[in-house]
Amino acid sequence: MAIVDDPRLAPYLAKKLGGTDLSIRKEWQNTEGWSMETFSLAVEYTKDGERVAQEIILRREPPGGLLEPYDSSTEYRILSALQGTGVDIPKTFWYEPDPAVFDRPFYAMEKVDGEVHFLTQSDDPNFRLIPDDEERASLTEDFIANLVRIHACDWRSLGLDFLGDPGPGKGAALKQTEYWSDVIERAGFRKKPLVTLAVNWLRNNAPETDSVRLVHGDYRTGNFIYKDKRIRAILDWEMTHLGDPHEDIVYVTGSLWRSPPPTNWVCHLLPEEEFLERYEEQSGMKIDREKLEYFQVLLDLKAVGIISTAANAFARNKTPDLKPGAFATLLDLAYAGLAQHLNGGLKA
Questions:
Q1: What is the pLDDT of residues 225-249, one digit of tens each?
Q2: 153, 214 contact by CB (below 8 A)
Q3: The total number of structural domains that make up the chain
Q4: Which end of the chain has fewer CB atoms at under 10 Å, N or C?
Q5: Range of the domain at 301
């Protein structure tokens, strides 16, 4: 059975690509992502009298999953706005809101040649995801540079104000606290005493934000394509919003993305202090260590929100994908992380 409905999709793609006699030569669904559905298509069509071969990516909203409710138009608009900013991203082609074309809304973009690191992969006796030191150094350089560019972009002039400016002061922290509180509420887990305690603590201890920045929201190893020891494209912009850049800093340094001992590198790339120092040097922003403690608790609440949403989607049989079910088994681990870091905050 074909992954995509060729008779329905082929004429549509031909029209969008400005060609005729289009055929889908190869199709496969990418398995790396745990959220939006990603399809790779190798197509051939005739344009200006010549036969053209091209590979494209379709990113489609799933029926349910980790980050529902989904809106693929948001990710498309973000990626389109960031073209030409220096951030390594795929080129976007178009957005299609009509579910009649491919069952659910989707957008099309270029296929970037390269690979994605799987966080469970082990390649050497020290269980390093990136055992080649030269490659690790060059990826680190690109990794930090892209994060700095994201945080430095002029989101107003790029038309990204549609993401919702939380305003100065405590707005960024409070907006994200309420957002994830609502996510957990929709999933049916908001009445947990630990969640209530965490939400109240986050509300009462919200830090000030001097400058609202574009925040990727899921910035880590595993969310970029690399080739020839360089980053080619930053992926997965579904949680991107306007807020405090300390959110991304905490996400990078989070325990889930670290290499195991003896290195304990953040995102399998470099020591934490080196990352913080290099980010400060390149961005010109001084990282507030106390803010990191606050946003760590917010990150733990976010983890509960994502995993509880996955659990709810799987329990209600909203998706045939088994990945949300597998992800749901991590809920107790997310609660434990929230309790640990919240306990530290309560003692401070």
A1: 999 999 999 999 999 999 999 999 9
A2: yes
A3: 2
A4: N
A5: 116-347
Q: Please check whether residues 245 and 128 belong to one and the same domain.
A: yes
Q: How far is CA 30 from the centre of its chain?
A: 15
Q: How far apart, in whole angstroms, are the C-alpha atoms of residue 254 and residue 301?
A: 13
In angstroms, the Cα distances linking 49 to 13, 19, 23, 264 are: 17, 9, 16, 56
**Single residue among 65, 88, 111 that ends a domain in this structure:** 111
Taking only the tens place, the pLDDT of each residue in 37-57 is 899 999 999 999 999 999 999
Q: Is residue 343 part of a domain?
A: yes
For residues 125 and 217, state if they share a domain: yes
Between strands 37-47 and 241-243, the pairing is unpaired
Tokens of 265: 């590198």
Residue 106's domain is classified under what CATH number? 3.30.200.20
Q: Which residue has the tokens 């178009």?
A: 94
Sheet arrangement for strand 224-227 = 115-116, 224-227, 230-234
Distance from chain centroid for Cα 63? 18
pTM: 0.92
Query: What CATH code is carried by the domain that includes residue 323?
Result: 3.90.1200.10
